[in-house]
Amino acid sequence: MDSPWIFTAFRAPADPEAAPEALREMRSLRARILFDQGRRPAFRSHAGDRPDDQPDRQPQDHGAWHFTARRARDGVHGAPLGYVRLLTPATASLYQSREFLGSEHYEEVLRTENLKPETVFEHSRLVVEPRARKLGLGLHLNALAVAAAHELGAAAMIGTSGTADGQDRFHGHFGFHPVPGTRRYVEKYTEDVVILLHRAEEGAGEHTALVDAYRLLFRHDLLAEADLDADPECGLTCEPESDSGTDSAPVFAVPHRGPASGGTAPRRLTAIGPSDPHRWKPVLFQPTRHDDRVALAALLNTGAVREVADTIEAQLAELIRAREPDRDFDAEALAAAGRDQTEGVQLWDYGTWAWYPWSGRLVHVLPREEFRLVRTDRNRGKIDRPEQRRLLDKRVGVIGLSVGNSAALTLAQEGVAGAFKLADFDTLSVSNLNRLRAGLHQIGVNKAVLAARQMFEIDPYLDIEIFPGGLTEDTVKEFFLGGHGPIDLLVEECDTPWVKLAAREAARDLGVPVVMDANDRGLLDVERFDREPHRPLLHGLLGSMTAEDCLDLTFAERVDLILAMVGPDQVSPALAASIPKIGRTLSSWPQLASGVALGGALVTEAARRILLGGPCASGRFYVDLEELIAPDRSRVA
Question: Residue 447 — φ and ψ, nearest 5°?
Fold first, then answer.
């Protein structure tokens, strides 16, 4: 449940006259998002005010729980970026769902569903700032509200939902379902509105694990119904923050549970929770450390482990043979060498146990250095061990994890870099499965998350950072220089012109070489900004065009610009014939898995040469399979 957000929580007083500054701030946030930048611009009055600005227009706020998300940077909490409201049965007379249905129909729904009014909570007003969308913040806020309701003893949650932009479908992923007979067109919303109902006993749909993980963060005594009339500042387990902008409302951070390289497991870790489809980092346990052993035992006791893969004996045998390939080990000699290797430590305690929360697998692996020695043993003769160690000290950035997925995985498999930064805002869709190695069960997963998981399953000791919002003006510096360290090489595989140019501008300024595969005719593009700091971007094909010039392009203009980047005279006949059809009979650029796989190989070869100081000059190189395997190119008589 890794998350970059800091959440605050408070319960507003029931007295409208006692509204704290935090509530006024939340109203302003909601009003700005909903009515200035969102779905309801027509809700402004003739005087220009917005409904959420007026205390008397939102009586549901009083007595409700309010959850806010902020991003923490360098220890300072920024402005609020998202919000959700949770009403309790104590203010059930104010529920929007009751107002929408009318009291008689509302009570009839509860009777039909066999629900007691005192166990039904209402959730509403989920909003996210535009600049924070597509990052999963709405999902975390929704999970937080559902988790709080469950922790407070809710038997059910109810609420109104629009349908035009898929709000109802979003809530459906959390186990909310439409109540029959409640959908109707509302003129002031210009869309159908429906009542949704959620039963706590049925979990939270596909996000049950995430909701359950948030429940672990709550102190039940502070969220209990008995405390509803207490100080509004009490709430979630946290430490008050004077600079949070919420009247010292409680603040808590989602725990970061990445690889524990060089450190011990967090103290007092007694439970990890069920396998979680939203996490992308493994948790590493070294049982020879006391805290790790306790945490590993606790994990096994949760029932979250679906599969244990313990092949340590076979891995030990491979390690021993890799060190002495010229020796013929019999069973007794192999066992003796194994005892020497483990230095008397029991096999269960030897090495590392890697817990993969998204699959529920617990995997036993050799210690880091021994594991990597064995894993890259077959590279020797082409990449010898001193070169392997040099490569593992490198950090590679990959932008665009559709075509770039092949490059990222091949780099990881070959051991070309031990650290990565992955950036992509998009999620896996069915149409991606023609070229991206993934399964149907991963539809909807962010592509950077997907690649990170796949790479960690190859090597759990990798250092990976992800940018699930893609590369933006706000994240360019962080991507190139921040986090765990600067990148040594960039692999650029996206199809957004602004990103292509902005990334190259930053790379040239910082002296970072750039490698790109164009997925047509086996085109490999190399720009050695590390050697040529004044080299024109994309070999000068776009003249003096900058990233700023690429903003607000139409779809047709984007297609034309990308074609210019590739070189209209160099594309394959098949692609040339397809370009006029894009946006008409073709949904996007045609791409094939074979071309993507070839591109991954070409990028990895170029990256390895560059990072090891081998021969690899700036330029464009074609490995055109259509030409290379033409019948007249056969070398057999």
Answer: -70, -30
Angle formed by the axes of helices 208-215 and 137-151, nearest 10°: 60
* Residue pLDDT, tens place only, 313-343: 999 999 999 988 888 999 999 998 888 888 7
Side-by-side strand order, sheet with 283-285: 283-285, 352-356, 361-365, 307-310
Secondary structure class of 477 (helix, strand, coil): helix
Tell me the C-alpha distance between 446 and 449, whole Å. Answer: 5
Q: Is 370 within 8 Å of 286 (Cβ atoms)?
A: no
Minimal CA–CA distance to 396: which of 626, 142, 604, 85? 604
Assess contact for 197 and 122: CB atoms under 8 A: no
**What digits encode the pLDDT tens for the residues 99-123?**
999 999 999 999 999 999 999 999 9
Q: What is the pLDDT of residues 464-505, one digit of tens each?
A: 999 999 999 999 999 999 999 999 999 999 988 999 999 999
Strand partners, 199: 156
In sequence order, which residues have a C-beta less than 8 Å from that of residue 36 and are 6 or more positions away?
50
Residue 495's CB is within 10 A of a number of other CB atoms, namely: 16
Q: State the CB neighbour count (10 A cutoff) for residue 218.
A: 21
Q: Determine the Cα angle at 5 with ends 304 and 26, to 5°.
A: 125
Please report the beta strands in 112-190, taking only residues with DSSP state E, as ranges in sequence order: 120-128, 156-162, 177-178, 184-186
Per-residue CA distances from 590 to 154, 577, 594 (Å): 50, 11, 12
Beta-bridge partners for 362: 308, 355
DSSP 8-state code for residue 15: -
**Following DSSP, what letter does each residue of 541-601 receive, concatenated?**
TTTT--GGGGTT--HHHHHHHHHHHH-TTTS-HHHHHHGGGBTTTBSS----HHHHHHHHH
